[in-house]
Specification:
The protein is α/β, with parallel strands linked by helices. The protein has helices at about 45-55, 75-85, 105-115, 120-130, 145-160, 175-195, and strands spanning about 5-15, 20-30, 35-40, 60-65, 70, 90, 165-170, 195-200, 215-220, 220-225. The protein contains 6 helices and 10 strands. The protein is globular and about 55 Å long. Keywords: ATP-binding, Cell membrane, Membrane, Nucleotide-binding, Transport.
């Protein structure tokens, strides 16, 4: 089974008062198709830096990141923007929905940015929202939704362009226990069904049984415990 996400010997350093600080230290990770990997670690361990590099938002000091076998190192800003739009789906802590767009429009905007044909986009948006149990809410605005419903919209939006990799950054942080488990369960099901590689950064121990692997970020490396 192929890995849709691969990080090879990723190192990231920065200068702090003339002293070089190392955040990530030759970090390696492979995430296979259909696999959901949880990343845990204390504040300041480098989780945000890891996620930014893996998600093509920040360049590593050294090492390589491969999405669907293609290196993203050395690409210019426009190429990286296109790559994020077509290859990566992000699910954030607070859903980050656009307040003045209805549910269906949230997804249609992503399709429009990628040049997807309108009729095909409308069909896909309705299919995804139906999978999320939101077919009756297509014309609702985000303010009318519960926290769990907003996160389900965020999952559907992240899947709209059929990305290779999904990243979820603390997706349960603003939810109660039941809604948090529901959201991660939906992510896990979609990852399996659509054969994505997915990474969830979390502090929530309750969702770990839904993940295929749990890794801890310590001293700049990912380790099993």
């Amino acid at each position: 089974m192929r890995s849709r996400l691969e990080l090879q010997e990723i190192t990231r350093t920065f200068q702090d008062g003339g002293i070089e600080r190392k955040i990530l230290d030759k970090l390696n990770l492979q995430v296979a198709e259909g696999e959901l990997v949880a990343i845990m670690g204390p504040s300041g361990s480098g989780k945000s830096t890891f996620l930014s590099i893996a998600g093509a938002l920040l360049a590593p000091t050294s090492g390589d990141v491969l999405l669907d076998g293609e290196s993203i190192i050395g690409k210019d800003k426009h190429e990286l923007s296109e790559l994020r739009l077509r290859k990566i789906g992000f699910i954030f802590q607070n859903a980050n929905l656009i307040p003045y767009l209805k549910l269906e429009e949230q997804l249609m905007l992503i399709a429009k940015l990628s040049g997807m044909e309108k009729a095909k986009a409308a069909e896909r948006a309705k299919e995804l929202l139906d999978k999320m149990g939101l077919s009756h809410r297509l014309r609702a605005y985000p303010e009318k939704l519960s926290g769990g419903e907003r996160q389900r919209v965020a999952i559907a939006r992240a899947l709209m362009n059929d990305p290779a990799v999904l990243f979820a950054d603390e997706p349960t942080a603003s939810l109660d226990a039941a809604r948090g488990l529901d959201v991660v369960n939906m992510i896990a099901k979609q990852v399996k069904h659509r054969q994505k590689s997915a990474v969830i950064v979390t502090h929530d121990d309750r969702v770990l049984p839904l993940c295929d692997r749990v890794l801890f970020l310590e001293e700049g490396k990912l380790i099993h415990k």
